[in-house]
């Protein structure tokens, strides 16, 4: 048993090292980069008014989803996402461009325990709630996804249109 534990530990360490080498923005302990002004907007200002949008995370007969999964905002609009995980397992909410979220999803497959605590992302345990304050400063079509391995593929993503 002892040898097995040791082996598992060294595999985990090797995985961690290779992930860090492959993705310079995701060094262990450092978390994700903190976006100041991104292609999809920037962290909100708590002193300014925000439109409140409630989003529920749930699982439903083998599918995983966000409700609602289609959102529409005006350019410059600040949004307070009130998140609630009504599922039985952990989920997360990550706002980004489609490209970034897909790239990030692949990184998560290599390092599934990656925790998100960034202005554009929140991970929630079952029955937990959380908030994200975000300002959409650019027009375009953006994505929000749960990037825990397998979840986006199971349906856990949505679309944000900023006009
Ligand atoms: Cu999920």
How would you explain this protein's 3D organization?
- By secondary structure, this protein is of the alpha+beta class.
- The chain has two domains: 1-30; 35-162, Sandwich (Immunoglobulin-like), CATH 2.60.40.420.
- The protein is built from two helices and eleven strands; from the N terminus they run αββββββαβββββ.
- The strands form two sheets. It has a six-stranded mixed β-sheet with strand order 4-11-10-6-8-7, covered by helices on one side. Strands 1-9-5-2-3 form a five-stranded mixed β-sheet, with no helix packed on it.
- It is globular, with a radius of gyration of 17 Å.
- Copper (II) ion is lined by residues 64, 91, 146, 148, 151, 156.
């Amino acid at each position: 048993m002892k040898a097995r534990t040791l082996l598992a530990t060294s595999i985990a360490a090797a995985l961690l090292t290779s992930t860090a080498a492959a993705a310079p923005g995701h060094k262990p302990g450092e978390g994700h980069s903190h976006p100041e002004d991104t292609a999809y907007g920037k962290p909100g200002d708590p002193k300014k008014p925000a439109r409140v949008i409630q989003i529920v995370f749930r699982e439903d007969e083998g599918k995983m989803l966000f409700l609602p999964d289609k959102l529409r905002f005006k350019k410059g609009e600040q949004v307070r996402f009130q998140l609630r995980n009504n599922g039985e397992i952990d989920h997360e909410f990550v706002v980004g461009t489609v490209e970034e979220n897909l790239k990030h999803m692949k990184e998560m497959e290599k390092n599934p325990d990656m925790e998100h605590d960034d202005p554009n992302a929140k991970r929630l345990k079952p029955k937990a709630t959380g908030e994200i304050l975000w300002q959409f400063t650019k027009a375009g079509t953006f994505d929000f996804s749960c990037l825990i391995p397998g979840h986006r593929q199971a349906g856990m993503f949505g679309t944000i249109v900023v006009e």
